[in-house]
């Protein structure tokens, strides 16, 4: 398991833990997404992301987390949305799109905890994530709903507290293990 000594968890005014993540794509076609093995359950795949540090902007945290967990750098694109998880943990995650331009042979988490990474088609990734990380699967479903002929990859200003970015509340359903997501704004 990944241990981060001296890590300070940051929370917003509503008590949600502030997180950031990236859907990392092989190219601008957004057909293949990079997933990493979970530090808690190495046989399961997740979207790379993690907690924001004090005074860190969501876009900076997303890029840092992807570099630490997946060993990739790239062109940061649009903010897909802000996703809330209200069940077990109160998380509010800013999810960005990143087009990978550099892949390291060895990176921090591969060396320290043996983390692995693998490319999946978007549909395969949704299936892989649905059983144990349904909120992560919802990121990709939201991406599919928002797709257009031009993917809109451009650097965005950092979201503010009164932003107009889409917010999604994800609630895990007990009967199906699925996720219900609704736009808050």
Account of the protein in words:
- By secondary structure, the protein is an alpha+beta fold.
- Helix content is 22%, strand content 34%.
- It has helices at 58-70, 108-113, 122-130, 134-146; strands at residues 17-25, 32-37, 45-46, 49-51, 72-85, 91-103, 117-121, 167-172, 179-183.
- Strands 1, 2, 3, 4, 5, 6, 7, 8 and 9 form a nine-stranded mixed beta sheet that branches.
Q: Keywords, please?
A:
4 helices, 34% strand, diphosphoinositol-polyphosphate diphosphatase activity, nine-stranded mixed beta sheet, 185 residues, alpha+beta, Nucleoside Triphosphate Pyrophosphohydrolase, 9 strands
CATH-derived architecture: Alpha-Beta Complex
Q: Which structural class best describes the helix and strand composition?
A: alpha+beta
Instruction: Please count the beta strands (DSSP E, at least 2 residues each).
Output: 9
- Indicate the CATH class: Alpha Beta
Uncertain stretches of 5 or more adjacent residues: 148-162, 169-185
Order of helices and strands: EEEEHEEHEHHEE
Family: Belongs to the Nudix hydrolase family. DIPP subfamily.
Main location: cytoplasm
Subcellular location: Cytoplasm
Cofactor: Mn(2+); Mg(2+)
């Amino acid at each position: 398991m990944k241990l981060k000594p001296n890590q300070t968890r940051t929370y917003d005014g509503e008590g949600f833990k502030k997180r950031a993540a990236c859907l990392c794509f092989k190219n601008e076609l957004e057909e293949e997404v990079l997933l990493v093995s979970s530090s808690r359950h190495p046989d399961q795949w997740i979207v790379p992301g993690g907690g924001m540090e004090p005074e860190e902007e969501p876009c900076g945290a997303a890029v840092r987390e992807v570099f630490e967990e997946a060993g990739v750098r790239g062109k940061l694109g649009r903010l897909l949305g802000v996703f809330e998880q209200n069940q077990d943990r109160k998380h509010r995650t800013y999810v960005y799109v990143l087009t990978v331009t550099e892949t390291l042979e060895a990176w921090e988490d591969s060396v320290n905890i043996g983390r692995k990474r693998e490319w999946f088609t978007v549909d395969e990734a949704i299936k892989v994530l649905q059983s144990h990380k349904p909120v992560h699967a919802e990121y990709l479903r939201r991406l599919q709903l928002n797709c257009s002929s031009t993917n809109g990859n451009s650097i965005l200003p950092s979201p503010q507290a009164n932003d107009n970015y889409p917010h999604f509340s994800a609630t895990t359903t007990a009967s199906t293990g699925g996720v219900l997501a609704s736009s808050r704004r």
